[in-house]
Amino acid sequence: MTADVVIVTWNGRDRLGSCLEQLAGQTAPHRVIVVDNASTDGTAEMVREGHPDVDLLEMDENVGFGRGVNAGVKAGDGEAIVLVNDDVEVDSGFLEAILEPLERDPAVGMVAGLTTIPDSDLVDAFGIELDVTLAAYNRLRRLPAEGAPGVLLGPSGGLAAYRRRAFGEADGFDDRLFAYGEDVDLALRLRLAGWEAAAAPSAHGVHLGGASVGVDSPRQRFLAGFARAFLLRRYGVLRGRHAARALAVEGLVVAAGFVRGRTTTHVLGRWAGWRAAGRDRLPVPQGAVDPGIGLREALRRLRHAR
């Protein structure tokens, strides 16, 4: 199976260079496509001069993660689309491992790789799981890789593979989601279309951490709030039987934002995301959520980083 490895970057010169060096050692047939979101730190120049075998797409502005990925996918033609964050260093056999479920089972449309925390055996993410309110969590977050993971919705966009046919049928990532939530939304739509998700624990990378929008920055809070409200409205959560729980948790999150961040950006983000979702509704596919994540566990995860 041929693969296009798509990396979206913004002012990630140093971390991207390390990522590209790791990808150069992969043995499975692949093409690397870097989408540079109008970086100002010399990222594009580094790719052109240091990695001439890499295809470089230079955007005129920062179009975000989802739109950047869509542009990179359009530029390729591989049977599989592999996404790697620019701050992830992958193992030598990563690409073969993440493609294996797609090659083995034609019903699989998406595959989750496994990232760990630097200088640790603890997991950063092993795909995404959802609670009944569609709040998303990284599976096995800060737990050993040998632990029992929760119900897999689909891959996290930081280390993922998609069958090109499946990605195309779902029209890729939703352009309205600049960052955060686009992988959740795509996984839900792929499941609605009948595609299955698989996990590839041997497709391993170390997530060095880049936080291009800044952890707990006003921009990060706005975008996270936007994505949350977008998903709540698009999938009709507040019209279902878990509406009270969703509203209660949202109230706690908003209140915490006021206290900790002394800002209203997370509220403004939610309002913008709600409006952007429009009136069209999609059902939540069967088997997409993990009913084992109760309210107490959800609050614990929110408090201790997902």
Report on this structure.
The chain is an alpha/beta fold and 306 residues long. It has two domains: 3-207, Spore Coat Polysaccharide Biosynthesis Protein SpsA, Chain A (Alpha-Beta Complex); 218-303, no CATH class. The protein has ten helices and eleven strands. It has helices at residues 13-23, 43-50, 65-75, 94-104, 164-169, 182-192, 218-234, 243-261, 265-277, 295-303; strands at residues 3-9, 30-36, 55-58, 80-84, 88-90, 108-116, 123-125, 128-130, 136-138, 159-163, 196-207. Helix 1 (13-23) packs parallel to helix 2 and helix 7 packs parallel to helix 9 (265-277). The radius of gyration is 18 Å and the shape is globular.
Task: Provide the fold topology.
Blueprint: E1 3-9, H1 13-23, E2 30-36, H2 43-50, E3 55-58, H3 65-75, E4 80-84, E5 88-90, H4 94-104, E6 108-116, E7 123-125, E8 128-130, E9 136-138, E10 159-163, H5 164-169, H6 182-192, E11 196-207, H7 218-234, H8 243-261, H9 265-277, H10 295-303
Parallel strand pairs: 1-2, 1-4, 2-3, 6-11
Antiparallel strand pairs: 4-10, 5-11, 6-7, 6-10, 8-9
Helix pairs in contact: 1-2, 7-9
Name its key features.
38% helix, 10 helices, two-stranded antiparallel sheet, alpha/beta, 2 domains, 306 residues, single chain, Spore Coat Polysaccharide Biosynthesis Protein SpsA, Chain A, 11 strands
Superfamily (CATH H level) name of the largest domain: Spore Coat Polysaccharide Biosynthesis Protein SpsA, Chain A
Write down the CATH class of the largest domain: Alpha Beta
Low-confidence stretches: none
CATH architecture of the largest domain: Alpha-Beta Complex
Principal-axes shape call: globular
Structural class assignment? alpha/beta
What characterizes the major β-sheet? 9 strands, mixed
Q: State the share of residues found in helices, binned by percent.
A: 25-40%
What is the H-and-E element order? EHEHEHEEHEEEEEHHEHHHH
Count up the helices.
10
